[in-house]
């Protein structure tokens, strides 16, 4: 959004205050000023001139020879090509040596044999507007030689506002609101606004009907008989400075009122209204509207529209339709001013991807009092600028709306406590009154009436009033104090510790790459991994992507869906993700969504691999991760996946348990899923329940002094039946071994002859190391014998 200082000066006297000071004070106390453009600096050397003589060029039909008085020693000879130049005009003259805003530096030159000393300028040549059809003619009362930069209402200083900083302030979406702020900041008087006080609500103009529930509590319209001539230059230049393109006086005045008061209005060509009737309603199924930008738009019943006796003519609060557009042929005007539901107009805007200056204001929740004020302001300006215009004596109005009547009790002690500033009660009162609050009460017990322009969504509680006092008094007045008080160490979330250590274990030790994805998954991805349609997963009402509207049941489906793309560029994939999976409890309509935090690790290869090897490697990854948490080694139990985890292999999957609690699952990926994903290789998944791991209350990693004495290492291979689990054998070996048995690591599994069909051989690497002394061979041999005996007692035999 842009602000014109020329415009603001109509509402508050800013004389003696530099534009830079205005920008700084507004940034400190009201809204962020992102930039400042001073058009006056670009007009250095350009002066007011008077055309003393204008005669045809002897060598060119379209050129004129002019003598220009410009305050110098003698008039300048200028060759001008503009069709509207004439003797007696006051014009913009750029002497020889002037550097124009477009980068051209003027020199004396001969044009068709005649000397030209400088230039008579059009508005585009001095950077004030886009027109080049003729020269800019200035008011007759100006004196030749006066710097153009000093001509009132011509060159401007434009402030650029960060829109985000005024989103909560509907009153600041017009120059009047910022003028009120500047009056309070610089302790100047806010000038009264010229309104047509003779206008009254009445029965003149088209009838107005408001459909119940259509999102328009108040609608008013004013009839005008006028021709759409050219707006005066000062008005055009203000619109241009604020980013709008001038059209004609009737349309330009509508935009002018919007930028001044913040209340959008819309002019309709009354002669093109059917039935002399206006209806505000919801769109009907199948309706379309061609908007002013020439685009035909399909409407839905949620859209609020303006209609006449036969068709839709505008999108309420957003943009008018081309059927009733004001043109050069317009002679009768119907000016709309209304209050629209912010949610309704924003919903339509978002659906259509259509944003306008009017929408930007209506979606903030405007003061309904502006509806009438905008009509009165338009009428007053039109009467002044076009005395021939006929403005109706009354405007028609339908509905009623008003800002909430808010009265807030405010204690001076609260202001001082919240700000940490010893500000007197009288200053609190005066500060609030300076921006339009009505303050009653006595002493430090104030009763504050919130003005309508601040009551729609901005000021609702005493702390809002404290903020008003603090920002206008100046936060720089708040004394700086070092914070003091006891420091308490907050408890760390155990889930965060689990995630942090698992992430480090997988990334650093197991060489996995972390990936991330949205929490939404597409129906296509779920179908590809065989996830059942029932029970339904939670669906988002307004998803980021229409084809990914489901909350994922696990991290696995989306990881598998992306696997084909990963394997297209590399032979193997080692990735993991930490995120949330979701489940719906209690039914799709009134059930609660339960979420769980999990880690999923995917190991995949482009070529075929033995599923048992993949499971074995994933087990090692799981053990390394749990070791980093300081938990006991997990026990594995053969497991058959259910329908809601169809990505696991039906016979190559297991649960992971710690202390009897299941903390995760691992296994090869089902061949059916790989086939559905059009993959030929092999893959495995490890899924850990992070909340279950955090509940294990593991103390975390413990650091111990590294033994100075050498370890003794032996390898043992046992033949054991499939009925005997490897974990059970390890537990028995550890229980039989001495305290110096520091590690038992399985490293090989063999199946085949001469072993039986129900047997396999498992080899273990055993490490003995004492922190106190070097172990003797006899001690190691005695330990070995006890371990072998314990294994044989379970049914294993030494190979």
Description:
The protein has 799 residues and is an alpha+beta fold. It contains 21 helices and 40 strands. The protein has 6 domains: 2-40 and 157-185, Phenylalanyl-tRNA Synthetase, Chain B, domain 1, CATH 3.30.56; 46-146, Nucleic acid-binding proteins (OB fold (Dihydrolipoamide Acetyltransferase, E2P)), CATH 2.40.50.140; 200-399, 3-Layer(bba) Sandwich (Phenylalanyl-tRNA Synthetase, Chain B, domain 3); 407-476, Phenylalanyl-tRNA Synthetase, Chain B, domain 1, CATH 3.30.56.10; 494-694, Bira Bifunctional Protein, Domain 2 (BirA Bifunctional Protein, domain 2, 2-Layer Sandwich), CATH 3.30.930; 712-798, Ferrodoxin-fold anticodon-binding domain (Alpha-Beta Plaits), CATH 3.30.70.380. Strands 28-31-32-36-35-34-33 form a 7-stranded mixed β-sheet. Strand 7 and strand 8 (114-116) form a beta hairpin. The protein starts with a strand and ends with a strand. The mean pLDDT is 92.
Short précis:
The protein is an alpha+beta fold and 799 residues long. The protein has 21 helices and 40 strands.
Instruction: Find the structural class using helix and strand composition.
Output: alpha+beta
| Structural domain count | 6
Q: Which architecture of the largest domain does the CATH hierarchy give at level 2?
A: 2-Layer Sandwich
Radius of gyration, whole Å:
40 Å
| CATH homolog superfamily of the largest domain | Bira Bifunctional Protein, Domain 2
Shape: elongated
Beta content comes to 25-35%
Q: Roughly what percent helix?
A: 25-40%
Instruction: Write down the overall mean pLDDT.
Output: 92
**Spatial gap, N to C terminus:** 84 Å
Total number of beta strands: 40
């Amino acid at each position: 959004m842009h602000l014109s200082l020329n415009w603001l000066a109509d509402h508050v006297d800013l004389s003696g205050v530099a534009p830079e000071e205005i920008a700084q004070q507004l940034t400190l106390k009201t809204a962020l000023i992102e930039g400042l453009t001073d058009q006056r600096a670009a007009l250095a050397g350009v002066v007011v001139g008077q055309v003393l003589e204008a005669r045809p060029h002897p060598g060119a039909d379209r050129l004129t020879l002019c003598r220009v008085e410009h305050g110098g020693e003698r008039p300048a000879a200028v060759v001008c090509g503009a069709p509207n130049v004439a003797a007696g005009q006051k014009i913009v003259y750029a002497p020889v040596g002037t550097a124009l805003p477009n980068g051209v530096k003027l020199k004396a030159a001969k044009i068709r044999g005649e000397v030209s000393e400088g230039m008579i300028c059009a508005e585009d040549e001095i950077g004030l507007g886009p027109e080049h059809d003729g020269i800019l003619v200035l008011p007759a009362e100006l004196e030749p030689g006066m710097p153009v930069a000093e001509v009132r209402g011509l060159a401007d200083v434009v402030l650029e506002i960060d829109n985000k900083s005024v989103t909560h302030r509907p009153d600041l979406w017009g120059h009047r609101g910022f003028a009120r702020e500047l009056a309070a900041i610089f302790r100047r008087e806010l000038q009264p606004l010229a309104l047509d006080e003779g206008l009254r609500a009445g029965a003149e103009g088209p009838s107005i009907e408001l459909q119940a529930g259509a999102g328009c509590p108040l609608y008013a319209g004013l009839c005008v008989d006028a021709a759409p001539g050219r707006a005066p230059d000062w008005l055009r230049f203000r619109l241009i400075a604020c980013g709008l393109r001038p059209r004609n006086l009737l349309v330009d005045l509508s935009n002018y009122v919007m930028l001044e008061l913040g209340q959008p209005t819309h002019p309709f060509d009354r002669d093109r209204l059917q039935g002399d009737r206006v209806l505000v309603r919801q769109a009907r199924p199948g309706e379309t509207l061609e908007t002013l930008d020439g685009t035909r738009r399909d409407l839905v019943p949620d859209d609020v529209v303006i209609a006449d006796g036969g068709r839709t003519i505008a999108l309420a609060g957003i943009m008018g339709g081309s059927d009733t557009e004001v043109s050069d042929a317009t002679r009768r005007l119907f000016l709309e001013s209304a209050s629209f539901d912010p949610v309704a107009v924003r919903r339509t805007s978002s659906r259509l991807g259509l944003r306008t200056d009017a929408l930007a204001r209506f979606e903030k929740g405007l003061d309904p009092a502006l509806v009438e004020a905008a009509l009165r302001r338009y009428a007053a300006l039109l009467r002044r600028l076009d005395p021939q215009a006929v403005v109706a004596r009354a405007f028609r109005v339908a509905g009623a709306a008003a800002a909430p009547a808010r009265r807030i009790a405010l204690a001076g002690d609260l202001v001082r406590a919240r700000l940490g500033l010893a500000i007197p009660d009288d200053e609190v009162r005066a500060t609030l009154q300076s921006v339009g609050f009505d303050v009653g009460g006595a002493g430090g017990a104030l009763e504050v009436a919130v003005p309508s322009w601040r009551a729609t969504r901005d000021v609702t509680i005493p702390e809002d009033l404290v903020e008003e006092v603090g920002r206008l008094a100046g936060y720089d007045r708040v004394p700086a104090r070092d914070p003091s008080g006891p420091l308490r160490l907050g408890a760390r979330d155990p889930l965060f510790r689990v995630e942090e250590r698992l992430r480090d274990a997988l990334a650093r030790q197991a060489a996995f790459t972390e990936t991330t994805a949205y929490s939404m998954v597409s129906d296509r991805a779920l179908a590809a991994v065989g996830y059942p349609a029932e029970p339904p997963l939670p669906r988002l009402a307004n998803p980021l992507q229409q084809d990914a509207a489901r909350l994922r049941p696990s991290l696995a489906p989306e990881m598998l869906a992306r696997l084909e793309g990963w394997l297209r560029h590399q032979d193997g994939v080692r990735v993991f993700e930490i995120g949330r999976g979701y489940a719906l409890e209690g039914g799709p309509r009134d059930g609660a969504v339960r979420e769980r935090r999990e880690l999923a690790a995917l190991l995949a290869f482009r070529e075929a691999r033995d599923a048992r090897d993949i499971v074995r490697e994933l087990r090692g990854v799981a053990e390394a991760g749990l070791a980093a948490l300081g938990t006991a080694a997990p026990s594995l139990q053969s497991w058959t996946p259910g329908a809601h985890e169809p990505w696991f292999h039906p016979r190559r999957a297991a649960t992971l348990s710690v202390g009897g609690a299941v903390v995760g699952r691992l296994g090869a990926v089902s061949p059916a899923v790989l086939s559905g994903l059009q993959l030929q290789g092999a893959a495995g998944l490890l899924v850990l329940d992070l909340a279950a791991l955090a509940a294990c209350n593991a103390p975390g990693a413990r650091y111990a002094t590294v033994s100075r004495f050498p370890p003794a290492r032996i390898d043992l291979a046992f033949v054991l039946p499939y009925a005997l689990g490897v974990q059970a054998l390890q537990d028995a070996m550890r229980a039989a071994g001495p305290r110096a048995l520091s590690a038992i690591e399985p490293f090989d599994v063999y199946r085949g002859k001469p072993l039986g069909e129900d047997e396999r051989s498992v080899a273990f690497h055993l490490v003995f190391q004492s922190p106190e002394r070097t172990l003797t061979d006899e001690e190691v041999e005695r330990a070995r014998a006890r371990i072998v005996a314990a294994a044989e007692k379970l049914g294993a035999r030494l190979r």
